[in-house]
Amino acid sequence: MFRLGLFQMGLGMLSLLTLGVLNQVMISELKIAGTIAAATLAMYQFVAPARIWFGQMSDAKPIGGYHRTGYIWMGMALQIICLSLAVKVMWQLGASVAEGWTGSSYAWAGLLGLMFALYGLCISASSTPFAALLVDVSDEDDRSKLVGIVWSMLMVGIVIGAVTGEKLLKGLTPETLQGAIDRLCLVVPIAVFVLCLLATFGVEKKYSRFADRTQSVRDDQITLRSALQILTASRQTGLFFTFLLVMTISLFMQQPVLEPYGREVFGMTLGESTGLNKFWGYGTLIGLGFTGFMLVPRLGKQRVAMLGCFISSGCFILIILSGFTKNQALLELSVLLYGFGSGVLTNGAVSLMLDLTAAETAGTFIGAWGLAQAIAQATATVTGGALLDVGRRLFQAKTLQFGLVFACEAVGMIVAVWLLSRVDVQEFRQRAKGAIVSVLENELN
Q: How far is the first Cα of the chain from the last one, in angstroms, to the nearest whole number?
């Protein structure tokens, strides 16, 4: 479990690099409009439909005799290459915007969006088979512990990235900024690839139960069409898909605005605002571990996810209140508590997600859930940036400008609770099992 968590730790470091550092460099340093900056970054999520295809491919077409490992390694290597190219394009866009928006500026913005779209395809190729591998190596009873450990490592990665970023970006001037960012974007991706290899080498061969669970199914029977038939057999799939959309949008609209909020409302430096992520990471780390080993065994996955929604909603209100007081310590406490609520919610929702997965088409189901989360994160990133722009036009006070984003997140969490209350795991399993039997009978016919 710990080794598998190293992969998530690497993803946490990369996510902070893109949404934490590059985002605020574009908005606060290069003076690129929040909507455009958020839209280019969000392109890596808008290619998320490819997750279903990559998931189905890993179910049906093993690489070197393994269903997951080859896809994970290939996707991670290409992901690092695309990210390094995207950073180079970002500097060209910034130089162009400094002289005023021209046709060349929009062309650079379009190219940056394309680079992040390719980056997103690489993420889909690696992270979807990885999540399917988690299903392959676990049972329902131990999944909350697996999620607690693996996703805790994701938070460890974010904390490491935040601390590293804070130190490397401390005391920078406009003249030294580009060199420091370039170094950060070279060192972190190389370290992440090494972690990927350490995390997955030999794991599938020794621990995967995919072959045992699919003995009655040949690889050539798991076509994309048949996998989609199984995926859509139960209305619970649609309900849970919608819950993931609303919950993830509400959870992550703050991503493009939290660091700028710290800088513009509280007067933080670039390093200090990047360091906010470590408080969120600490809280999430505690929430994930506590939930996996203590809350889920007592309350159940569904109730725990609802509890996480309520905690997160309250924390968004607290973040707004901290802005009126200009109290940096209160903001850091609010972000810490928000992280705890995120950890509770993530463990409950991800554990439930892995349960709502048919073993015979695990990759396809994980691709669908990943699609919901990716679409939601992309929408959240763009919506967060757009709402900030709306807030700037509606309000003079910066706290209200940013507060509009946090208030919308608080309301969205309550809607997510209502959706989750309608999900029925037992109904899903019955429908999925019937669909698998039906698909196999059709193939025999």
A: 42
